[in-house]
Each structure stands twice: as C-alpha cells, then as structure tokens.
Amino acid sequence: MNFILTEEHEAVQQAARDFARNQLLPGVIERDIETRFPAREAKMMGELGFMGMMTDPAYGGGGMDTLSYVIAMEEISKIDASAGVIMSVNNSLVCWGLQEFGTEEQKQKYLTRLASGEVIGAFCLSEPEAGSDATSQRTTAEDKGDYFLLNGTKNWITNGGSASIYLVIAQTHPELRHKGINCLIVEKGAEGFAVGKKEDKMGIRASDTHSLMFADVKVPKSDRVGDDGFGFKFAMSTLNGGRIGIAAQALGIAAGAYELSVSYAKERKAFGKPIAEHQAIQFKLAEMKTKIEAARLLVYKAAKMKDEHMDYVEAAAMAKLFASETAMWATTEAVQIHGGYGYVREYHVERMMRDAKITQIYEGTSEIQKLVIAREILK
Ligand code: CAA
C-alpha cells in the first residue's frame, strides 16, 4: 500500500491544520472548562466541507476518500478532540450510513442537510443496559402498520443536544433478537421525543453528550433505514467505518500531545540545559514518535482498505485499538514531560490526557476491538 500523500491529500491536511490552529485553538481551554459546545466552529466546519467529507457531492458532500477524512480528523483532533468527535459522528456514522443504506427520499430529505453541515446528526445505539452488549436493545419500535411507535431511552449520545437528525436503533421483533432490530430516523421536535440531561464528562467536554427519551414517538415507515430487521447490521456496518474515524481522532490527540512535548522539551531547562538534551526525555520522545507513526499507518491502512472496498472490519478494529491505547499512553507521557506544567490547564496536555480516555471506550471499547479482531482471526 502506498501511503505517500497526494497533492490533494496534502491540501486537505493543510486546510484542516489551518482551520484547527486559527479557529479551534483560541478558546479550546475555555470551552473545555465551561463545557461549551463549539457552535460557531461546527458551523464553520460545515462551510469548509468537513462535516460530510465522504458524502457524494450530489447530496451536499465533498466526495472525498476515507484517507482525506482521516487526515483531516487527525489535524482537527490534534487541537480540539471535542470538535473531532462532533465531526466523526456526523461523517462516518450518520452521513455514511444514510448514503450507503438510505433511500433516495431519505438522502434528499436528510443527508443533504447533514453533509453540508446545515444541521448535525447523532447516532443512537447505546442504552442504560446496552453498551458493549449492543444487541440487548430495550428501546422498542412497535410496528403499527404505516408507522413505528418508538419508546425507550438512549444514553451517552454524542451531539445529543446539538443534533437535529437522529438515527435511532430500536427493537421491533424481540423474538428475532438482533435480526428484529431497526434503525429509524427521528427529527428533533418530534412529538414525544425529549433530550435529557447533559453529561458532565471527564474529557471531550465541549462536545455535548445527552440521554434521550422517546415516549410514543410516531415514526413513519418511510423513515426506517434499510429493510425490516436491518437495524443491527446497519449499526455494525456504520461502526466499522466509525471506528476508523475515532482511531484518527485518537491519533490526532496522541500526535498533538507529542508535538507540544517536543516544543516544551526544547524550551524547558533543567540541570543547566534544555530537558530535550536529557536522555530520559529523548527516549520518551523517540518512543512516542514511533508508536504514533505505527498508529498512523494502521489508520491509513484501514482507510485505504475501505476506499478499495476490501473487508476492513479487522483493520478498523486494529487501528482503533492501537491508536486509542497509544493516545492514552502518549498523553500520559506528555504530561510527565511537562512536569508540573503538564498538570495544569494552560499547557493543553492535561486536557488531551482526559480526552484520550474516551477513545478507549466509545465506538467499541478496547476489549470489544480485541473481541472483533479475535473473531476475525478464528472465523
Ligand atoms: N460488522 C458487520 N456485522 C457485524 C459486525 C461487524 N463488525 N459485528 C457483528 N456483526 C453482525 C454479525 O455478523 C451478526 O449478524 P448475523 O447474525 O447476520 O451473522 C450480528 O451482527 C450479531 O453479531 P454477534 O452474533 O457477533 O453478536 P454478539 O452480541 O456476540 O457481539 C458485538 C456483537 C460485536 C459485541 C457488538 O455488540 C458490538 O460491536 N458492541 C460494541 C457496541 C459499540 O461499538 N457501541 C458504540 C456506540 S456508538 C458511539 O460510541 C458513538 C459515539 O458516541 C462516538
């Protein structure tokens, strides 16, 4: 596989880097402290084409490949991992899912608004009692003839309050277990749909994470994605691509913390010389760079395999597992290199360490990624 970036890829990288440095960096600390959603910045991401990068231009997207998407995700997450997750969910779970499996009517009605960044989307799979065990859906979508009656609660939903369009996974035929699950499109404002409390999170605090409540919400049959019972397959298929996006977010967090560490190590003096001249710090930087490069290659490989329409389930799981573990480790090292300064907000790396943690949890925990990889090995 050739991972030399083309001129187009370099242009995407530069555009994302410039946007992140000029628009996301100012205020990133304050947004984290105040748990303030980057509304202005998210709108700009839409205008610049970052919210529907892989979507067909016929539906308002950028028509780019997955490699372009992960390159942009890395640059944006280097500076602001909250903006990274807002972008990732919209691109790879919501837009990609609708483009791949939605009807023409659904694409015209929903995808065009989502891909252009006019509105934001949310992907609603997790429940109070269905996290890793995603087949155990308690939310029900009762078939009432020409509509579904949706009832239940979803938890930890990224973009939960800021979204306008929600993809909701729910059980229609419990006797069929995961084969009875459907995915329904619900718009904010639907009668019976309420956005619940906003979570006070450890990291990615500027992204808004909510519980959602559905009480007798009527969803027309035309807003079901795919055939009856396709919902779980839909969720798993979109998550395969979503995991590449989150792997790129984790890569960005790790790379951002590494870059800050290199700069700091050159400036900070101890025992009469810059700490970069001490072997203890040099070894940390060398190991960080090596692991980050390995993570980047896994992320690029998964993206390329998706672009080439190869089976990328295992590659996506490996990329997410390795990149998120690297992000947690590298940000912890970055705090260590920064010493006391690393433990305070002003120097960014403490936020990055908190942000890194969620990449080991959402879109499938590290343990679930290992399960997915092991199943691929043994199948
Ligand atoms: N790709 C495609 N299909 C898959 C799949 C995959 N990666 N994994 C499972 N499936 C299919 C299986 O083929 C099977 O279908 P068939 O019966 O037709 O063969 C069906 O799904 C059920 O699979 P299993 O029998 O393997 O079910 P299981 O219960 O043993 O395991 C699981 C399923 C892999 C653990 C799954 O529940 C899982 O991935 N859990 C993690 C859930 C998750 O990632 N949640 C993320 C929430 S969204 C989020 O985090 C967004 C955000 O905020 C950023």
Describe this structure in words.
This protein is an alpha+beta fold and 379 residues long. 52% of the residues lie in helices and 15% in strands. Strand 8 (269-270) and strand 9 (273-274) form a beta hairpin. It binds acetoacetyl-coenzyme A (CAA). Acetoacetyl-coenzyme A (CAA) is lined by residues 85, 89, 123, 125-126, 132, 134-135, 158, 178, 232-233, 236-237, 239-240, 313, 362-364, 368, 372.
Short overview:
The protein has helices at 7-24, 28-34, 39-47, 66-79, 81-101, 104-115, 231-267, 279-307, 313-338, 349-359, 366-378; strands at residues 121-124, 140-143, 147-158, 165-171, 181-187, 193-198, 209-220, 269-270, 273-274. The protein is an alpha+beta fold. It has a 4-stranded antiparallel beta sheet with strand order 2-3-7-6, covered by helices on one side. Strands 1-4-5 form a 3-stranded mixed beta sheet.
